[in-house]
Write a structure and sequence with these properties.
- A hairpin with a 2-residue loop joins strand 1 and strand 2.
- Helix 1 crosses helix 2 and helix 2 runs antiparallel to helix 3.
- The chain has a domain of 56 residues.
- It is 51% helix and 14% strand.
- By secondary structure, the chain is α+β, with helices and mostly antiparallel strands.
- Strands 1-2 form a two-stranded antiparallel sheet.
């Protein structure tokens, strides 16, 4: 397995990557960095952990909205209450933006 150094929100990470998966991993890193940068730029969220969770939720929500292209017959959720998810995350992270 190949290791690739990437930067997300100014922080460097070394990630394992299967051979031939470099382009997909780089595209994923760019998407995560873009989401996290957008959230941080909005100025409402300061804690890196909270920004990461919100970015993950945003990306997962976008994936769920994509039209089904495979033959998978699992039904997609009929609705996602993103505000309720964010509220639950805020409560879990607490006032200081930390998981624990």
């Amino acid at each position: 397995m190949k290791q690739i150094e990437v930067t997300i929100l100014g922080q460097s990470y070394v990630l394992g990557c299967p051979e031939g998966g470099e382009n997909l991993l780089q595209a994923s890193v760019k998407a995560v960095d873009r989401e996290m940068t957008t959230i941080r730029a909005a100025g409402k969220v300061k804690a890196r952990e909270r920004i990461a969770v919100l970015a993950a939720l945003n990306l997962a929500y976008k994936l769920e909205q994509r039209p089904e292209t495979s033959s998978n017959t699992d039904p997609a959720p009929s609705s996602v209450d993103v505000n309720a998810l964010i509220s639950r995350i805020d409560k879990a992270l607490g006032e200081h933006g930390q998981l624990l």
